[in-house]
Amino acid sequence: MWQVYFKELLELVRDKKTLIFVILLPIFIFPMLFGIVGSVMAFTANKAKQQEHRYVIVNKEQAPEFAEALFYHKNFKQMEVSATTEAQLIEAIKQDKIDVAVIIPADNSKKQNQLEQVDWKIIYNQSSQYDFMFNYFNEVLQGYTEDLQKRSLKQLDLDERALPAIIKPVKVVKVDSADKRENVGEKIGAILAYALILLCFSGAAYPAVDIGAGEKERGTLETLLICPISRTALVLGKFMTILTTALLTALITVASLGLWGMVIGGLSKTDAVVDIVQSIAVSDLMLMFLLLLPTSAMFAALLLAISIYARTFKEAQNYISPLTIIVLMPLMVAMAPGIELTASTALVPITNIALAIKELMKGTAELSLICLIFASSVAIAAALIAFCVHWFQQEKVLFR
User: Fold this and answer.
1) Angle at 22 between CA 20 and CA 28, to 5 degrees
2) What keywords does the record list, in alphabetical order (predicted)?
3) Domains of the chain
4) Which of 45, 87, 189, 374 can pair with 361 through a Cys bridge, CB separation 3.0 to 4.6 Å?
5) What is the pLDDT of residues 324-377, one digit of tens each?
6) Which residues pair with 252 in a beta bridge?
């Protein structure tokens, strides 16, 4: 078995594609992509914050203080259009003449003097992902509303210092019982688990296709089969090779992201990245690696079985592509709000590993549940390895 393992590993190392997928991608490409995506998102958000919104106020004489405050706001620019009705203003926004319109009722001043509530309308395109414009509008409106409240209190002969107690009799102050590590783990735990498990799968995919279907296509599988070695040892050697590349990809990626994160954090003089790294104990990292072992074994056995069944390299890739979606589904379940690690979720494959990694990052993992997850994952991995060995014994599979 070990002779086959070292032979397959040596062939993969000599293959330039393997070096790209297993080493270069995790060290350079993935961090570069994450950096580019982060930079683009930050640039887009900053651009949206600085954007100037063209606006129109209908019946602005009914609220001169508000109109003046909006006029002097740095993110708003007043425009003149003939539209006055709601339908006309919507059409003006669609034609890109204005960005936002505010309709103040014609009887606004009268209702305010009578201490009646008034409905204003703000019309704008709400499909934008960065809805900073409405926040800016609320800033101006809040100051205007506070002035109206004080004016109304004077009409009622009440002290304006009592305004906070009248408007909001009870003020709730939130006190977080979670420590810094738990907060950090909650934010990045699910993302880290998602990345680790997906990397284990992707790290196993290419070697599996090459070792199984690639051997068939190159015509070297028959040479291996006539060697004085059992088929069980042969398939286990191939399995161990795929398992090694899967774990190696995940480990290199995590180390690379951590290293680049420390470098970027040091250059930007922020302590956020350092706090994240320092919050993870060595024992937690060991447990994460221990949980990734049976997960990677499951992927390796399943992918090798698919690769052995496929006639060609391309056919194996076609089979593996839908499998990626199947792997993503339990990962998405683990990232859903309200999904916690319990005795029930600990028995759900892949989801349980993602939830366990998240709990380890938070420092709230229960050892009993970790043992249950490890045992169930090992059982599934053993069953898949046994199936893969049985699959390799079938002549109709090897030479279909």
Assistant:
1) 65
2) Membrane, Transmembrane, Transmembrane helix
3) 52-167 (3.40.190.10), 180-398 (no CATH)
4) 189
5) 888 889 888 888 877 888 888 888 888 998 888 888 887 788 889 999 999 999
6) none
Half-sphere exposure of residue 366: CA atoms within 13 angstroms, side-chain side: 10
User: Measuring CA to CA, which residue among 102, 87, 98 is closest to residue 57?
Assistant: 102
Mean pLDDT throughout 293-307? Answer: 89
What is the Cα–Cα distance from 87 to 321, expressed in whole angstroms? 48
Kindly state the tokens that stand for 236.
């286990």
Characterise 168 by phi-psi region: left (phi > 0), alpha (psi -120 to 50), beta (else): beta
Tokens 């916690």 sit at which residue?
Answer: 340
Fill in the amino acid letter for 267. Answer: L
The residues, ordered by sequence, that sit 6+ positions from 206 with a Cβ below 8 Å of its Cβ are 17, 18, 21, 245
Model pLDDT for residues 275-284, shown as the tens digit of each residue: 555 556 667 7
Structure tokens at 147: 């002035």
Secondary structure class of 116 (helix, strand, coil): coil
